[in-house]
Structures are given as C-alpha cells and as structure tokens.
Write a structure and sequence with these properties.
alpha/beta, two-stranded antiparallel ribbon, 10 helices, about 40% helix
Length: about 240
C-alpha cells in the first residue's frame, strides 16, 4: 500500500480527484485528495489573505497530523508548480516521490502568475478587479476550454457547479525554495508538452529551468490540461505504476 496526497490546480477541490482516487483505492492504496483553503468544501474559508503560504501549510499539516510517511505527493497545474516543491522542500524526509501532472516546479522566487506571461497576467488581474472583488480569480467558462470537449454534459455541469474562485494571492506569491526538494525522485505526467520540448525550453526559458535534469521519469498522457476529468483511469494507472 502506498499513501498518495492529491492536490488540485486552480478553481478545484478534492472532488476533482474522485475518479482517480477510486482507481488508486481499487489497488489498495491510501489516497488523500485535499481541498486547499478556500477551495472545494473549504470555499467558505477563502479571504484576501489566503496565499501560497496558506496552501503549503494545509499540506504540511495534513502530513504532520495524519502522521503520513513515504508520501507520493501529486500536484496538478498550480499545485504542481509551487505547492508541491514548497512542501517537499520543507519535509523531504516524509515524501518518497513527487508527481507533476501537466505541470512542473517553478524556480525559487517565481510565482504562478509569472509563469503565465504578462498578457495573461494583465487579463487575469482585470478579472480579479472587475469580477472578483479585488482578491479572487473567477473560474473560466469551462465549456470553452480546450481539452474538455470530450466530457459529457453531466461532467461539464459538475465542473461548472463545483468550481470556485481562486484567491489571487495564491498566484502572485513567489515560491521560496532551498533546493532540498531536488533530492526526491520526480514523475512528469505530460499532457500538453513532450519531454523533448520541455528539455529544449529549459535551455532558454527560466520558468522551465527546474523541469529538466535531476531524477526525472516522464510519462506521456496526451490530451487536455485536466486528465483527472477526461482520462482518470489512465492517470490512476500511471500513478499506481509510480509506486510499484
């Protein structure tokens, strides 16, 4: 049995991992999907001060108070970019492997908002100002998102119904790392990029610098950015194999 902690990306809660968690539990694993503060069933806890440090503390406290060891720490999108490496940097002795789902660790001092580029950041900041009370980013119109066209109407309705605004400070806070996380083995589940493209971009784009070199294993899962919705069985199989 392996212990998995599953962290969702922007706008999502633990509910997003339902089908993946079921697949892992069918193999006998201990699976802990986590809704970060202000997300999912913890949406009522969101506030202007909810930032990256809050979400890192969420995960550290789960590991501490549930007395978890040899954790496979899985992060999708935002969670993979900044939460996973920040947690692993602080408690590497409690973690056996890091998994980045269509994501990758950002370098020390970079924020999620920095990764998206100036145009996207400006557009998101305007949404925060005009539609998010100045501190939260509303979910996107999911039916217009590339890579979700294969979902059923029921699945799209669920995604639309359960998504909540993302506290914007989680995107703008720079991640702070000592580099201790680099000692851990890492699995890259690649949906929108190939390993070759990542290595090429790492040579010239600072945001990709940590995604090449080191103890990496790569698995391709071509498709959209949210494989927990359109390819949950295949994603669960990849995660299970990571523990074997």
């Amino acid at each position: 049995m392996t212990t998995y902690v599953l962290l969702p990306g922007f706008w999502l809660g633990a509910w997003a991992w339902r089908d993946v968690a079921a697949g892992l539990r069918a193999h006998g694993h201990d699976v802990r999907p986590l809704s970060l503060t202000g997300m999912g069933e913890r949406a009522h806890l969101a506030g202007p001060g909810t930032g990256l440090a809050t979400h890192v503390t969420d995960v550290l406290n789960l590991i501490r108070f549930e007395e978890l060891h040899d954790v496979v720490l899985v992060g999708h999108s935002y969670a993979g970019a900044v939460v996973v490496p920040a947690v692993a940097d602080r408690v590497p002795e409690r973690i056996s492997r890091l998994v980045f789902v269509d994501s990758g660790p950002l370098p020390d001092g970079m924020s999620q908002a920095d990764f998206t580029g100036p145009a996207d950041r400006e557009r998101n900041e305007e949404l925060v100002r005009t539609a998010g009370d100045g501190w939260r980013l509303p979910p996107p119109p999911w039916r217009e998102q590339a890579g979700l066209g294969g979902l059923s109407e029921d699945a799209l309705d669920r995604l639309t119904r359960l998504s909540v605004p993302q506290p914007w400070a989680t995107a703008t806070t720079p991640v702070r790392l000592t580099g201790a996380w680099r000692a851990l083995p890492r699995l890259h589940v690649l949906c929108g990029f190939t390993a070759e493209r990542i290595r090429a971009m790492a040579a010239t784009v600072p945001a990709f610098r940590e995604m090449a070199g080191g103890d990496w294993t790569h698995r391709d899962l071509p498709g959209g950015h949210w494989p927990m919705f359109d390819r949950p069985g295949e994603l669960a199989a990849i995660l299970h194999e990571a523990a074997v």
